[in-house]
Amino acid sequence: MTLILGIETSCDETAAAVVTDGCAVRSNIIASQHHLHEKYGGVVPEIASRAHLQRIVPVLEEALAQAGVAFEDLDAIAVGNRPGLIGSLLVGVSAAKALAWALSKPLIGVDHVRAHLYAGFLKPLENSEAASPSLEAVFPAVGLVVSGGHSSLFRVDDPLRTTLLGRTIDDAVGEAYDKAAVMLDLGYPGGPLLDKLAQRGNPRKFDLPRSLLGPESLDFSFSGLKTALLYSVRGQPRGKGREAAFERSAADLSEADKRDLAAAFQEAAIDALIVKVHRAIDTLTRDGAAPRSLLLGGGVSANSLLRRRAVELTQRGLRVYLPPMDYCLDNAAMIAGLAHHQLHAGQVDDLALPVIATASL
Ligand code: KG4
Ligand code: ZN
Description:
Layout: E1 3-8, E2 13-20, E3 24-32, H1 34-37, H2 45-67, E4 76-82, H3 86-103, E5 107-111, H4 112-118, E6 123-124, H5 135-138, E7 141-146, E8 151-158, E9 161-167, H6 173-183, H7 190-198, H8 223-234, H9 255-286, E10 293-297, H10 304-311, E11 319-321, H11 333-344
Parallel strand pairs: 1-4, 3-6, 4-5, 7-10, 10-11
Antiparallel strand pairs: 1-2, 2-3, 7-8, 8-9
The chain binds 5'-O-[(R)-(carboxyoxy)(hydroxy)phosphoryl]adenosine and zinc ion.
């Protein structure tokens, strides 16, 4: 049995988790900082790193206590060290280094985006008796990571071998959701609020564009959709940039129009994702690596319409791995889960482990 402690502090969640054998989640502690960033409408890096410092020790203690294990029982300390906000990453990585050094345990740096792809294989300890799939049945797979920072498509040959097929050329889909929610005056963080409202709206009342970027492209673009929503909410602008004046504000919308605009936005955003997943399946099949499954991860994988549309892909003969809701948003269980495979492949780091802001290809 391998017992790994995962630590995740790349953005605004301070998280720690203990996972057995890369799959059974014994504890999954997440301290959110949403209330600290709410009034700014987005994450403020300096506030985030300071809040991580205040929370990291109690979060680690809680993760060990809930898992019912002592620090000495751990086989390795894993930490998300890339990509993310540098000041935030530093807190988790410093804590992981201190623990690895003090306990003489292996230290494992984990890629946050790849870890999101792994979240669909995690199960709470009490459900972990259910047989895990054999790797032959899962791979090759198409992977889709959709979050506030990323919208990326991957070919996944095993948990440690991923190849980027496409990514957003402007906004990440979660970022577009958050900005759309601001335009509709829904609150922060906007993604889940917009999703909830959209479920009560008519997606066909307003027509919003799907940007597909040419017939072969596997990249995404969400800025056109965002602008189209802005004009639908506020009318055509007069003047440009900061001088622009709009015909109306979100407060002038009827509740019905708000619901219908949210539904139209949701339909267009999720359609654009699903079209690219189909294209990725076609591309891999043409390359002689017909995918056996779809792996979904990242905050937007909590979205009700995306989950429904992803499950429909089983009609193309794919298994679909959707993360349980607790592992969609940033969490440390996904870090500990992927680290299990890194440990067994001998991919262990030393105390020189760096923090890296940008996503690796
Ligand atoms: O993975 P995550 O926690 O952080 C990043 O790595 O970015 O993703 C957060 C993003 C936010 O943009 C949030 O609005 C979005 O995920 N999100 C959703 C939903 N739940 C969270 N977007 C659409 N529908 C949802 N239900
Ligand atoms: Zn994330």
